[in-house]
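Fresh eyes needed here. Have a critical look at this protein's tokenised backbone.
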Amino acid sequence: MRCSLNAENTFDLVVIGGGIAGLASAINAASEGLSVCVLEGGIEFGGQTSTIKQIRNLVGYPEGISGRELIRLTLAQARGFGVKLCAPYRVQKIRRGSLSELYVDTSHGKSFTTRAILITAGVRYRRLGVDEVSSFMGHGVTYGELPDNIVGERVAVIGGGNSAGQAVVALAQKSECNIDLLVRGALSDKQMSQYLIDVIRKNAHGNIDVHEQVEVIGADGFLKLEHITLRSLKTQHLTRMPLDRLLISIGSEPHIEWAADQVVVDEKGFIKTGSRVASESVWINTQRKPLPFETTPGIFAAGDIESESVKRVASSIGAATGAIASILRFLGRR
């Protein structure tokens, strides 16, 4: 989806990232009368939300909704409010002007001028870090999403969070697969929503096996994945498990080198905002305190890229609403 660029490319707000947090924030901002542009670095909008098979705890969808369908509806709503949607437009740098204006330079050689920036992008799937597993990428090993046409296979899912749980539940309901959920800790560690834990424990279809306190340390196969090697973290016992596919869903890590000199980050590289940056040097000589979701003057962050944020679809949508409230205050609209 190419953006039809005009001479000015000037907006009240530029949102960097076309996932659910970015799109939700753009809708909120546009509904308040702001001119808004969303820059998405990938070919398609949606980010990691698009890979979720079914979201059951989102208000207004009692039967659940797939991430892909949620993004489709959200894009339609954004267009209805006149949001400019640009993809693929990969951000290369954020710059400050001589006054209060901000510039966003993109891989297309185009710069966007804006009064405020909201960063909702910049995370990617965390890698497992096992070379033998990585060698089967695209040949039985994948991150984030499995094909829809899987039937009757043995599939293992690594992860203890909601994305892993949602993948397991969706596979168990529709695919006639045997699913092994592999968790380094325990499901009771509360990384996963309780409703997903309950569904997995109930195992209504009889095709889910949960392996807690284990880690994958190896893989083998001829041309494609055929086995993985598990190590028990309690006993150190090794198990060689036959397998057709492996989905790795172990969270995300920051990837915001293009914004490094314009944001404040924590020890893991996620963007710190609000009161957590008030003592930073960038704010010492500023005549005001940072607003919620603000990292440096005029630059805000929300969603998965924000430090200590809750990595949930519903939470990202809520954070987007909160961020726009702060941006409206910053722009003098409230």
Residues 310 and 334 are 27 Å apart (CA to CA). The mean pLDDT is 90. Residues 131-248 form a domain with the FAD/NAD(P)-binding domain fold (CATH 3.50.50.60). DSSP finds seven helices and 18 strands in the chain.
